[in-house]
Amino acid sequence: MQNLILIGFMGAGKTSVGNCLAQESGMTFVDTDERIVAEQGMEISAIFEKYGEPYFRDLETALLERMQNDTDHSVISVGGGMPVRERNRDLLRSLGCVVYLLASKETILGRVRNDGTRPMLSGENLETRVERLMREREALYREAAHLMIQTDGYSVPEVAQMIRLEARKFGY
């Protein structure tokens, strides 16, 4: 499968970079969160509120399992929590070249501060929540990734170019 899968913390640039990369490479862009929203007929925040996080994570796993057979030549942006499950990390790696987009806590905070659509950021102090989640997820992102690309200080097209150059090492 010739897919590029973008993982990383919310606000790392997965959707923006993914769209740019897909357009420039003639690939299809797939956002797993958008697919889940379309399939469920409700926003992710509503899914979390009505059914809880474990149910949402089950939806992510089921989607990845289906994508093993129906997704090729695509740039895939996944939700920030998708790689938390070991099963999902295995599925992501079998789906294609997994690229971890890294961003500093300050960059993330600047991008998500006024975004009320992210259920994982509700509750405690935003900076505390982001710091804790980033710390919890860092090793899992690294475990899932074939490549790691730092996004701080780079434009979306520059990050897309770095991914194209690095992914060539994996035959993409």
Question: What brief labels describe this structure?
Answer:
single chain, 172 residues, alpha/beta, five-stranded parallel β-sheet, globular
How is this structure best summarized?
This protein has 172 residues and is of the alpha/beta class. The chain is 56% helix and 13% strand.
Ordered list of secondary-structure elements with their pairings:
Elements: E1 4-7, H1 14-25, E2 28-31, H2 32-40, H3 44-51, H4 53-70, E3 74-77, H5 86-95, E4 97-102, H6 105-112, H7 126-144, E5 147-150, H8 156-167
Parallel strand pairs: 1-3, 1-4, 2-3, 4-5
Helix pairs in contact: 1-8, 3-4, 4-5, 5-7
Output mean pLDDT: 90
Provide the β-strand percentage band: 5-15%
Largest sheet: 5 strands, parallel
Kindly provide the radius of gyration, computed on alpha-carbon positions and rounded to a whole number of angstroms.
15 Å
Range of helix content:
55-70%
Describe the structure.
This protein has helices at 14-25, 32-40, 44-51, 53-70, 86-95, 105-112, 126-144, 156-167, and strands spanning 4-7, 28-31, 74-77, 97-102, 147-150. It has 172 residues and is an alpha/beta fold. The chain has a 5-stranded parallel sheet, sandwiched between helices. It is globular. The model has no long low-confidence stretch (mean pLDDT 90).
